[in-house]
Design goal:
Blueprint: E1 2-10, H1 14-31, E2 35-45, E3 53-59, H2 62-74, H3 76-85, E4 88-102, E5 108-115, H4 123-130, E6 136-144, E7 152-158, H5 161-173, H6 175-183, E8 187-196
Antiparallel strand pairs: 1-3, 1-4, 2-3, 2-8, 4-6, 5-7, 5-8, 6-7
Helix pairs in contact: 1-3, 4-5
């Protein structure tokens, strides 16, 4: 079990932002207690979020996430670099990683936002289909995401969105998955496609 803070940022100087994220912020993150993994993606097909950046920080606990987020956002070096790149955080949420298969590797990341009661019941079924078009699949449940229609997110890492879409259709058509979704009043309420940047 782990917890992922997703920070969504508006960025003016993208090259500088990415250089600073990987060259300064990530090493700082790795030094913090409870830190696990950091990734950077850019929303490319996501409605009004297109062009924004998503930085995910994974932690061992919610307490570590809260303390770590405070440490990073209050770091003078981080603050200066955000100013220099014209970056500003527009949204921050925390989710619990409740089930995961495969690897977090791929050119693209698909995020399907879900409503209803989010459980790990459908993970095995999802992965059975998803692995034909995705490298990794993760189910997350919201811990704190503000006023929003979604209560969880299904993430899929892939090198081909076309291949992933075929496997995604298989997930949704699976009778066992349909039963789980009906029982938990779970349904997709939105989707974003991102490109890996770091």
């Amino acid at each position: 079990m782990s917890f992922i803070v997703a920070a969504i940022a508006s960025v003016q100087d993208q090259a500088k932002f990415l250089g600073d994220a990987m060259g300064y912020v990530k090493p700082k993150f790795n030094e913090l207690d409870g830190s696990m993994e950091m990734q950077v993606h850019q929303f490319v097909m996501a409605g009004e979020m297109a062009g924004l950046y998503g930085v995910s920080f994974e932690w061992e606990s919610v307490d570590a996430a809260l303390e770590g987020a405070d440490a990073i956002s209050s770091d003078s070096g981080v603050q200066q670099r955000m100013m220099d790149s014209g970056a500003s955080v527009v949204r921050r949420s925390i989710m619990e990683n409740i089930a995961e298969d495969g690897q977090r590797e791929g050119k693209y990341l698909s995020a399907t936002y879900l409503s209803g009661t989010i459980t790990d019941e459908g993970q095995a079924i999802s992965w059975k289909h998803a692995q034909s078009g995705a490298n990794g699949f993760m189910t997350c449940r919201s811990v704190a995401n503000g006023m929003a229609a979604w209560t969880g997110v299904a993430f899929a890492w892939t090198d081909s969105v076309d291949a992933m879409n075929v496997s995604r259709a298989g997930i949704m058509a699976d009778p066992e998955m349909q039963q789980i979704m009906s029982k938990n009043d779970m349904r997709p309420v939105g989707r974003a496609i991102m490109k890996k940047r770091g």
